[in-house]
Design goal:
The chain is mostly beta strands. The protein folds into 2 domains: 125 residues, Jelly Rolls (Sandwich); 99 residues, Jelly Rolls (Sandwich), CATH 2.60.120.10. Helices cover 0% and strands 52% of the residues. It contains no helices and 22 strands. The two termini are 30 Å apart. The model has no long low-confidence stretch (mean pLDDT 94). This is Pirin family protein. Belongs to the pirin family. Its cofactor is Fe cation.
Amino acid sequence: MENKDSTKEEVITNYILHKANTRGHANHGWLESYHTFSFANYHNPERMNFGVLRVLNDDRVNQGMGFGKHPHDDMEIISIPLEGDLEHQDSMGNTTVIKEGDIQVMSAGTGIFHSEYNKNKDQLVKFLQIWIYPNQKNVTPRYDQITLDLKDRHNKLQQILSPNPEDAGVWIHQDAWFHIGKLDNGFSTSYQLKKAGNGIYAFVLKGDFTIGTIALNERDGLGIWDTNEITITANSADAEILLMEVPMKL
C-alpha cells in the first residue's frame, strides 16, 4: 500500500451507495442508533444485507445505560468501540471492558446471552455493532478481544479481522477481512481483495474520501462487487475508514 497517483480515474461500475442521512434511525433516549441495514423496527427490503454483512449499527449509549442480557445464535458479532468504554458480560463467563483501539468478536454458534453497558457515568460510549453470517452453523460459542496499536493505521490499512486465527486481528467463521485506515489529507492507497468473488463495503468513520470517482462523507457506506482492487483517497485531515471484505453469496 503506497501513495498512488490520484490523477488516474478509476471508474467503479458495480456498487451501491448508502448516504449517512438515508440510514434507519432509532432514538430510545438512552440509546441512539443508526442502521445501515434493516434492524429491529427499521425494515427496508432494499437494505437487508451486503453479501454476508447483515448488520452495521452505529450506536451511541448514554452514561451508565446499556443493553440488558439478550440471546444470539449462529452469527458472528463484531464490536468496534469509537469513543468511551463499553462493559461486556456473557453466559461464557466473560466480564470485560472494551474501548477505542479494541476489537471484540463473538461467535454466537449454538447460543449465547450477553449484555453491554456504558461503563462510565460521565461520558457517552459510541461503537459499531456488526453482524456477519457465518460459513458454518452450530459452532461452539467463542469470545475474543484484542487491543491494537492505533499508530499502525496511520496512512495504511491495519488489518483487524480475518478468517485465520494466526493472522493479525481477531478471527471469525467466515472468509472476511476487515481493515481500518487513518489517512492524511490527499493520501491515496489501494486495497486488493483477498478472495475472488468477494465484495467490499467501505464505511467512513471520520472525514471525507474518494473511492475511485465516488465521493464519500462521514458515515457514508459504499458496497462494491465484481472488482479485484479499489483505490482510496482521503480528502480531509485525519480521515478514517473501515473496509469490510465479505463473501457476496449467503
